[in-house]
Amino acid sequence: MSKVLKRFVSFSKRSRVVAMLIALALIAAVEFTLLAQQLESLEISKMRDYGAKGYVSDEVWYVDSARNILEKVFGLLPRFEGSPRATIVYPNASMMDRAVEEAPRYGVKVLFYKLPSGRYFFEKIPAIYVEARSIEDIERFAHATNATDIVFGWVLGDAENIDTYLNTEHPPMAKYLIALVMATLGDRPLYWRIPSICAGVALVVLTFLLIYEATRSELLALLTSVLLLVDPMVRNLASIAMLDIFVATFSVLAVYLALRRRIVAAVLAVCMGATFKFSALFAAIPVAALFLHQLVSQGVRRVSDVFEKLIAFVLFVASTFLTIQVAVSIPLINYLGFGTWFEQSITGAVSWHLSTKCVGPGCPPASTPLDWFFNLNTFPLYVGELNLAASGLEPVYALAFVLMLISIPSMALDKPRSRILWYALLGIFLGYVAIWFAGSRTQYSFYAVQLAPFIHGFVVVRGYELLRRSVLWRTLVEWYRLFAMCWETLLKFFE
């Protein structure tokens, strides 16, 4: 082992970094894929007896809408592994019951209709899941039995109007990727999760590059990436087909590009992240902070000049965001019409995000952005043989919050290398706080995956800085001076 380490250390720094990145990517890919596969096996084992559908948590909304977009918007079908299968939807339960009796006449096999308990397999929609030798056999049977819709591929989730749902409250990019996988590889849970697995791997790699760019330390970059790999928040969300892992990946990419003074590219990364979910726009806050740092270092200090540049930055972000949203939504615009699309995907989506949604019994636990640091009101992702929740790595998240606050004076006076990560952590956190005050009171703990790389990076880098007693002592002295100044100011009101 010592010989291997000596040989590794003897490599050039570039070679060591490349080797670390390859190792991290392989470990992440295996870790996320194994969990995704395990979840698929668990769900399939419970389909016939318990009515499981294969979906984990909110996957049901994104995967079903991806399948609907593939079939209804693009006019394509998923790739079949064997005989064609489809969910057939009927106007009511009685027509569905009659259709089941007619199925053998049309060479159609009903796979899921009722459970052994006697309950319908689908409880919220009158539907059956069938298999036949050809697509035409299924279509002929559905038409003859007066079905209202056919959705080919994996069995639909059990929700009202799920066969027409397009998830227009969120941008379409994640659904496009899932639909692409369905069309090329097939329609099954493991395949749906491939885009998320890739995003998770990219997140680990980009986080390493960000910390290395900020500190020039291979050790700190490696330690941060390892913490990401063992963080249940990252592992769980990189193994299921949800949106926030993409938001986290593009947020890290944006901050990395901004750190390298590529502000335009950073804004493009933010806006591409927003094609998965609007919350990626919060990454524009640390990008703006790094842009302002760049301006000040160039000697731009007059109030009017700074405000002029920042207003131009905001306008550039807004125009780029809208342009990219329209560009990636062209298929949906053609399908829905521009007016309907704009109402549902822009104005309606903003209104939806700033509203209080599901509350009360039967709803998942909502949380505040502050809760995320202390694993309060965590969102359950999977309950059963394997219990998964959107919870962060304890106590790293709590430590990050404490360090984020106590380091405020140091960020201004000492200008440590951790300040870049502080910009990102505090900026994105304040973005979520702002929309909470604006009305978005039903936020969920899995949103915190966007903070995860910056939480781990900040704890590692700032913790390393505070190991030097002089830095720790100076931080305490700065807080004492700040407290003394505030106290003296307060006393002046009573002189």
Question: Can you tell me about this structure?
Answer:
There is one protein chain. The mean pLDDT is 93. The protein has a 4-stranded antiparallel beta sheet. α2 packs parallel to α10 (218-230), α4 (59-73) crosses α7 (173-184) and α14 crosses α21 (419-437). The longest helix is centred in the first third of the chain and has 33 residues, at 13-45. With 495 residues, it is mainly alpha-helical. A hairpin with a 5-residue loop joins β5 and β6. The chain is built from 23 helices and 6 strands. The chain is elongated. The chain has a domain at 52-172: 2-Layer Sandwich (Alpha-Beta Plaits).
Please compute the radius of gyration using only Cα atoms. 26 Å
Average predicted confidence as pLDDT:
93
Q: How are helices and strands ordered from N to C? A: HHHHEHEEHEHHHHHHHHHHHHEEHHHHH
Which architecture name of the domain at 52-172 does CATH use?
A: 2-Layer Sandwich
What is the strand tally? 6
- CATH class of the domain at 52-172 reads Alpha Beta
- The count of helical stretches stands at 23
Helix/strand/pairing class, anyone?
Answer: mainly alpha
CATH topology of the domain at 52-172: Alpha-Beta Plaits
β-strand amount:
5-15%
Give the termini distance in whole angstroms: 71 Å
Largest sheet: 4 strands, antiparallel
Unreliable stretches (pLDDT < 50, length at least 5) are none
User: How would you sum up the global shape?
Assistant: elongated
Helix content bin: 55-70%
Main sheet: strand order: 2-3-1-4
